[in-house]
DNA sequence: GCATTTTTTGTAATCGATTACATTTATTCG
DNA sequence: CGAATAAATGTAATCGATTACAAAAAATGC
């Protein structure tokens, strides 16, 4: 009966690095070969019950933890994926992230978070990280890089675009139909009788922004409304941009009676500015946003907005990525999920009288 | 003059795995040994200019990317750290994260994000990930695990606690003085003339919650105010908890005239509930929060709150971790940063007349 | 009981970069 | 110029788990 003491286990501390128990230590104690220990861990059904028990006991006794780096090295996979977010502090993305994380966790993948900080250069850096095998795959929640680059890259590595996409490309993508969502939002304002409707757009180099603008234009055109070009203002999806742009609009000789903002953060900034300019929302100016982030329902007036299925976007994106990493065929490469217009107070809808 | 075509580079696709260019390929093309290539990459000053140039050209020509897994394996380090967050969607943490990310990036470290979802079991799982060397160190933004466990763990691996801490432990920690912060907040309400002050606390098993409660009690005691035990309600830091608890308080025969909430999310939930119960904020009920998250200044009424230096907490935590990973001595293990009471409308302060 | 098949275990090569040590080449200096 | 020293490069072991293949042990069948 051999007993291993704690002293035996913890041993030498050399230059601060703890000497770890390795597989061969377990093998020795259990009086089997390295291979058998490995098998107990990865395919226990091929090991005789008795041997397996002995090995497991040794593992426990030595408190052995397999060295993931060595395993990764041998198998040339990290069991982790990289998710690139334009801005970690943005609520919208953190919910998508949650969807990704969940599916990833279920399938034994770690999520490495990459914050691009809205900087394209950073995005390119992240591609290299994947090239260097720091992760097995990648989900991009922002894609400002050149189309050719991403496309070529996606031929060699598992990549999924979520939310953003590239026109006419074959990169697996999960998103909603931004054009129709924006159209719905704008049409809602039109149906409420508004004619002078402004749009606070996102940056034009981002396709989402162009799509939402397009939806806005379509709605205006279909209803034979003119769009005064001064009513379309380009922002960057930030609260501050919404606030500043709305201040501009309020200063116009003929201010709009309604505003469709390309996301909720800008919409809230806009409402804030409108109020400060003594416009009542929704009475004087109705506002509609996009995304349905958490504050939108809490803020007053609560925000009418186009709701994206954030969690589902994350989950589906991870599913697409998993399939690629497992070399499964993708039957559908472009997944378009349903958005939904949520009516709240900021455009005059009242759930309950107050 | 040897030319390498794209075909040469991209080669065989076997079972979907692209054959990568490796160091030996570069060595062969540059007609040097493996070691020299390695040196060009990690200590170029030891390689003759001419040779170095030749190697760099080959690297470029073959588009060689070092295999990080192999490097990690050999050096037994991943150059990544693990950050455990109780909830990714929480604004407060995402800002701390940004501080961590920044410092990590500057020092060549990747940030692996772990979402514990407020589940202790998950936290224990993350410890094992570190044991298995998935990362070189770990920052805990939540620490519900048993003190002994974390402490023993922290002897073998680089760990930093941020925001949370463990009493009388020697684990490196970055935080503010929550007791004094809470006391300040409560005293502010007392100075405004409030006597019946409620407290919406966090879960009692979290030390932050206990500290903030303690600060509240201290302030009351010092000012010889009685604390009606029905006025202290335990929540879980969520908007919903604040909302529900405030509904309870409003239904009291003698409702409080002021509320100190243990964080901003609960404070905002509380204001929302107060309003729905026809209490005006701050006229009928003054509210103070804790954390100073972004919405707090946007929400109406804007929220008086104790501001934590979120970014700095993240940076300092990463600095402590870096020192541990580099086996440097820590001169100070417990870092306490300054908080600041920010006066806004929710307790009757008006920056500008409206 | 012995040949055949099946199951279990062991042996040793392998993944790709790093690095201690050995060797070669270049430089310095009397 | 040649010895001594310094600089540049090469050789080969190494990190720890996995796995193809070989060998041994157990089970089966006649």
TrEMBL record, chains A, B:
Keywords: DNA-binding, Transcription, Transcription regulation. Pfam families: LacI, Peripla_BP_3. Residues 21-75 form the HTH lacI-type domain. PROSITE patterns: HTH_LACI_1, HTH_LACI_2. GO terms for molecular function: DNA-binding transcription factor activity; transcription cis-regulatory region binding. Coiled coil: none annotated. InterPro entries: HTH_LacI (IPR000843), LacI/GalR-like_sensor (IPR046335), Lambda_DNA-bd_dom_sf (IPR010982), Peripla_BP_I (IPR028082). This is LacI family transcription regulator. It comes from Jeotgalibacillus soli.
């Amino acid at each position: 009966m051999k007993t291993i003491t704690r002293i035996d286990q913890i041993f030498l501390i050399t230059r601060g690095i703890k000497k770890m128990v390795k597989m061969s230590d377990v093998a020795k104690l259990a009086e089997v070969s390295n291979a058998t220990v490995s098998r107990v861990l990865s395919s226990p059904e091929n090991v005789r019950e008795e041997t397996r028990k002995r090995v497991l006991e040794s593992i426990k006794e030595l408190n052995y933890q397999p060295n993931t780096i060595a395993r990764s090295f041998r198998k040339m996979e990290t069991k982790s994926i990289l998710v690139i977010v334009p801005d970690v502090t943005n609520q919208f993305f953190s919910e998508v992230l949650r969807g990704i994380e969940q599916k990833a966790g279920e399938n034994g993948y770690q999520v490495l978070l990459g914050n691009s900080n809205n900087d394209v250069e950073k995005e390119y850096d992240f591609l290299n990280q994947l090239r260097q095998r720091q992760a097995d795959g990648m989900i991009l929640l922002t894609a400002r890089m050149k189309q050719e680059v991403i496309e070529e890259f996606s031929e060699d590595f598992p990549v999924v675009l979520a939310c953003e996409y590239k026109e006419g490309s074959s990169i697996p993508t999960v998103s909603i139909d931004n054009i129709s969502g924006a159209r719905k939002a704008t049409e809602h304002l039109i149906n409420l009788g508004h004619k002078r409707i402004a749009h606070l757009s996102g940056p034009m180099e981002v396709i989402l922004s162009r799509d939402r603008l397009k939806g806005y234009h379509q709605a205006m055109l279909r209803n034979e409304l003119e769009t005064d070009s001064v009513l379309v203002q380009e922002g960057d999806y930030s609260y501050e941009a919404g606030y500043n742009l709305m201040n501009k609009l309020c200063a116009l000789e003929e201010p709009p009676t309604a505003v469709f903002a390309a996301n909720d953060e800008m919409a809230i900034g806009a409402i804030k500015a409108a109020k400060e300019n003594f416009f009542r929302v929704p009475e004087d100016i109705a506002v509609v946003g996009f995304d349905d982030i958490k504050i939108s329902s809490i803020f007053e007036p609560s925000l009418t907005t186009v709701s994206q299925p954030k969690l589902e976007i994350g989950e589906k994106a991870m599913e697409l990525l998993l399939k690629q990493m497992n070399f499964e065929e993708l039957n559908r490469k472009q997944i378009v999920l349903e958005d939904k217009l949520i009516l709240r107070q900021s455009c005059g809808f009242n759930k309950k009288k107050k």
